[in-house]
Amino acid sequence: APEQQPVAIPPNTKALITAGPTYEAIDPVRFIGNFSTGKMGIALAEALAERGIPVDLVLGPSKESTQHPLITTHKVVSAREMYDACERLFPEAAISILSAAVADFRPQEAAAEKIKKGSEDTMQLTLVKNPDILAHLGAIKNAGQTVVGFALETNNELEHALKKLKAKNADMIVLNSLQEAGAGFGHDTNKVTLLSADGTQTALPLQSKKEIAKSIVDCVLALKYNNA
Ligand code: CTP
Ligand code: CA
């Protein structure tokens, strides 16, 4: 990691974090979800709070939680609920870090009653695309707002992540390397590379999610308040 100089954080700086999975209802008792635990996002919220920055944490279904007094947790279930919460909270946020594993699609309609298995051997579910929260915030951000996203890739990772950085108008993408043993979903360690819109790339060593979160926050604060 690069040398970190102390940064002066302006008063009244607030942050927005998304974390965890989203659940998309199929019927009253079933959903489409993923294995995200929310640990990375909670660690990011805590790292920001440790720097004295109040955080709105928009958290999908997760058994993890945080008690930090500077963190306000907004629990949501679906991608659309997460989108609505972010839209409401974003105007206040100088820094937004979107670490949630948002379901890309949801069932076109959630059945009102439990779906019966019936006599057919196959069943079809029609899915529709969810709104992209990162792309939306990237599109509406003002000059004082920094928006950071994540990218989870299994192949051509750098190329895909750089595409996301551009397409979503993000200031930084945290590229999650699944190829490394001990990195990614369900693990307590991660290996990430930070890709900034200014072209800099910073590869962080394999570290605990807590340490990674601290490094990401240090880099974002340095990028935002150290330049010029
Ligand atoms: N993201 C989001 N809203 C969505 C989908 C993704 O805010 N509906 C955010 C994630 O929180 C993450 C970034 O976009 O910060 C990239 O997510 P990822 O799943 O890696 O990329 P996608 O754009 O969804 O593309 P794909 O899944 O096809 O790789
Ligand atoms: Ca996705």
Automatic annotation (TrEMBL):
Which pathway, per its entry?
Answer: Cofactor biosynthesis; coenzyme A biosynthesis; CoA from (R)-pantothenate: step 3/5; Cofactor biosynthesis; coenzyme A biosynthesis; CoA from (R)-pantothenate: step 2/5
Q: Where is the DNA/pantothenate metabolism flavoprotein C-terminal domain?
A: 13-221
Reactions listed under catalytic activity:
(R)-4'-phosphopantothenate + L-cysteine + CTP = N-[(R)-4-phosphopantothenoyl]-L-cysteine + CMP + diphosphate + H(+); N-[(R)-4-phosphopantothenoyl]-L-cysteine + H(+) = (R)-4'-phosphopantetheine + CO2
| GO molecular function terms attached to this record | FMN binding; metal ion binding; phosphopantothenate--cysteine ligase activity; phosphopantothenoylcysteine decarboxylase activity
Any one annotated GO CC term: phosphopantothenoylcysteine decarboxylase complex
Q: Which residues form a coiled coil?
A: 148-175
The segment annotated Phosphopantothenate--cysteine ligase runs over 15-228
Write out the residues that bind CTP.
D104, K114, P131, D132, I133, L134, F150, K164, K168
An example Gene Ontology biological process: pantothenate catabolic process
Is Flavoprotein found in the keyword set? Answer: yes
Cofactor remark from the record: Binds 1 FMN per subunit.
Q: Which UniProt keywords apply?
A: Coiled coil, Decarboxylase, Flavoprotein, FMN, Ligase, Lyase, Magnesium, Metal-binding, Multifunctional enzyme
Cofactors needed by this protein, per the record, are:
FMN; Mg(2+)
Q: What is its EC number?
A: 4.1.1.36, 6.3.2.5
Q: Does the keyword tRNA-binding apply?
A: no
Q: What does the similarity note say? A: In the C-terminal section; belongs to the PPC synthetase family.
Describe its function: Catalyzes two sequential steps in the biosynthesis of coenzyme A. In the first step cysteine is conjugated to 4'-phosphopantothenate to form 4-phosphopantothenoylcysteine. In the second step the latter compound is decarboxylated to form 4'-phosphopantotheine.
- What is the protein's given name? Coenzyme A biosynthesis bifunctional protein CoaBC
